[in-house]
Write a structure and sequence with these properties.
The complex is a heterodimer of chains A (232) and B (231). Chain A is of the alpha+beta class and 232 residues long. Chain A contains 6 helices and 16 strands. Chain A is flat and about 65 Å long. In chain B, strands 1-2-3-5-4 form a 5-stranded mixed β-sheet. In chain B, strands 6, 7, 8, 9 and 10 form a 5-stranded antiparallel β-sheet that branches. The chains are: A alpha+beta (232), B alpha+beta (231). At the A-B interface, loops of A face strand 3 and helix 4 of B.
Chain lengths: 232, 231
């Protein structure tokens, strides 16, 4: 079973990763006994599995994901929400307010076009269209804050091991952060300077997601920026 | 000829991720060609009647800027633009997993800022880098390159004058790791022997361009040091 790369080597689509009795994991495919990469990323050889941790990816929705998106259309009894997936997500009335749809309801008064909502993916339609729900703590319309975009595959990096990264950022800045698995992050702080700092931190994570010792470096970065802010 | 050897490419520069508002993008310079490509999607397709229930639709738009050639050309899409859009789409389609995104569309916008021959090849090269940058799963990169015949000599990578004064032009797009040709066109006359020679030359050129594409994609990440450990 030959391997053509070392663990965590950078690969691009079409690179032959392995041959023989491996299973093709994420972001790979098998053709004629060989396993090829489909996305740019870091290759990972597990027990009988080859996968690639993508550095660039579109959002592929999964059940249970928390997502942040904007309402773009209102249908009869449902809203269409753009969460960056291959299809617009559907939010039905019962999943939004907990009661069934009635003719006299005014949907724009609940969520209007342009409203940003935090929602959970409860189901995927047969064609992959995500079905959302805004019932639950922390879900619903966003009243204030700032939206930052990241590559969806870098979200685990932002969360860190057992939330180490995001908890550190929360503790250091005192901001409210809602992470959407679709790569949209909602940042809300009372202190607007801290909000700017968090946005910078998120950019830094986006750019350096593939490097080692990131949490510590981000910690240092936040400390440094806070010092600077105090001096001014 | 512009001082190159018969089997020499023009200097090429490729850069990924140049447009912040696109899902993926690339900028390419090949000799005096300057091309920018933006990729969007997979996203919901409008108008909906164009959607395919079992796969995504790849849409390409090849457009030459009015100032890209001398004399200035009309910005309206010409017959040639429409054809090249189709050619680029056909060359890229085999590299994509369109069946993974039913009813969606993937849109590729190719803008020629400055044209100097073999723009269809350069567009395909740039578009495939932009597709990777957009994080769209691909079977392989697509590299493209042209060969041709000038003064009864088979040569690589024609520029504008070589294309117009030469006897034949043979654009080729190729997926190097899969060994598959996705585009093969010919303009002019070549004997079967010359054709074989030109095709092999173009494939060689594609392999060189492929290496440059890889480098361009990787250079964004290797600067900061490779690999990440468990934290």
């Amino acid at each position: 079973m030959p391997q053509y790369f070392k663990n965590r080597d950078l690969v691009v689509p079409g690179d032959i990763l392995a041959e023989g009795r491996f299973r093709a994991g994420e972001n790979t495919y098998r053709l004629g006994g060989k396993i090829y990469a489909t996305r740019i990323g870091l290759v990972e050889y597990g027990r009988g599995v080859v996968s690639v941790i993508a550095l660039r990816s579109n959002y592929e929705p999964r059940v249970g994901d928390t997502v942040v998106g904007a309402v773009v259309d209102i249908d009869l009894g449902s809203w269409r929400v753009d969460v960056g997936a291959p299809a617009l997500a559907i939010l039905n009335v019962p999943d939004a307010i907990g009661e069934s749809f009635k003719q006299e309801m005014a949907l724009p008064e609940i969520f209007d076009i342009g409203d940003v909502v935090v929602a959970r993916v409860v189901k995927l339609n047969r064609d992959g269209t995500p079905i959302l729900s805004t019932l639950g703590p922390g879900l619903g319309r966003v009243e204030e804050g700032r939206l930052v975009r990241m590559t969806p595959t870098k979200i685990p990096r932002l969360i860190g091991k057992k939330g180490s990264m995001v908890n550190m950022i929360l503790k250091e800045t005192g901001c409210q952060i809602v992470i959407g698995q679709n790569g949209v992050i909602l940042v809300n702080c009372r202190d607007k300077e801290m909000e700017d700092l968090v946005v910078q931190v998120l950019e830094k994570i986006e750019n350096e997601a593939h490097t080692t010792g990131l949490t510590n470096r981000i910690y240092g970065f936040i400390r440094e920026m806070k010092e600077k802010g105090r001096d001014e | 000829m512009d001082g190159r050897k018969w089997n020499e490419l023009r200097p090429i520069k490729i850069e990924g991720g140049v447009l912040p508002n696109a899902d993926g993008s690339a900028y390419l310079e090949q000799g005096r060609n300057r091309i920018i490509v933006g990729v969007f999607g997979p996203r919901e397709l409008h108008p909906k009647h164009l959607a395919k229930p079992h796969k995504a639709v790849l849409r390409c738009r090849y457009h030459m800027a009015p100032f890209s050639v001398d004399p200035r050309r009309s910005p309206a899409p010409s017959r040639r633009d429409t054809e090249l859009s189709m050619v680029i789409r056909n060359a890229l389609e085999p590299a994509l997993f369109l069946e993974r995104y039913p009813r969606a569309s993937i849109d590729v916008f190719v803008e020629i800022l400055q044209a100097d021959g073999s723009t269809r090849c350069a567009s395909i090269t740039a578009a495939s880098v932009a597709l990777v940058d957009a994080g769209i799963p691909m079977r392989d990169l697509v590299a493209a390159c042209s060969a041709g015949k000038i003064d009864s000599e088979v040569v690589l990578d024609l520029n504008d004058i070589e294309d117009k004064e030469g006897e034949a032009d043979l654009p080729v797009a190729y997926m190097p790791k899969l060994g598959k040709v996705t585009l093969l066109q010919m303009d002019g006359m070549l004997s079967p022997e010359e054709f074989d020679k030109a095709l092999n030359l173009a494939l060689e050129g594609c392999n060189k361009i492929y290496e440059l594409q890889r480098e361009a994609l990787k250079s964004r990440y290797v600067k900061q040091g490779e690999g990440r450990s468990a934290e």
